[in-house]
Amino acid sequence: MLIFGHPHLASDPFYHIDSPEAIATTPAGSTVLFAWGIANLDLVSYCNANDIPFALEAGSVKEALFAENAGARFILVESALAPSVQKVAETYLFDAKVLAYIEDETQIEAMAFEGIDGVVFAEAVIKVTG
């Protein structure tokens, strides 16, 4: 299981962006993060065209399917949605890893028993504006 943002474990952060200009302010090789949506298709295209690793936030199984097909490296979802998305990811052999947002380390074990690929604490997400 991948764990992002735990205070006692080293991990690379996600850089939450809202524009291609914001990408320029992130460290080279970092993973940018934004929500799946029609309004962000330009960001998906930009990242794919420039080989920039990206993660997408999905609010449903359908959005997770779109995120996988868009080329996301990670799909971030709320913990309640994670088991459903993980099951679909395993059925269709997603390349992307399914990560659940969690607030407390006691949730790590529950997500592990559900077979979720990883968890993300809020501290792992850095907001970047462009």
Condensed summary:
The chain has 130 residues and is an alpha/beta fold. It contains 5 helices and 8 strands; from the N terminus they run E-E-H-E-H-E-H-E-H-E-H-E-E.
What does this structure look like?
By secondary structure, the chain is an alpha/beta fold. The protein has one domain: TIM Barrel, CATH 3.20.20.70. Helix content is 32%, strand content 24%. The protein contains five helices and eight strands, in the order E-E-H-E-H-E-H-E-H-E-H-E-E. The protein has an eight-stranded parallel β-sheet, covered by helices on one side. The longest helix is centred in the middle third of the chain and has 10 residues, at 61-70. The mean pLDDT is 96.
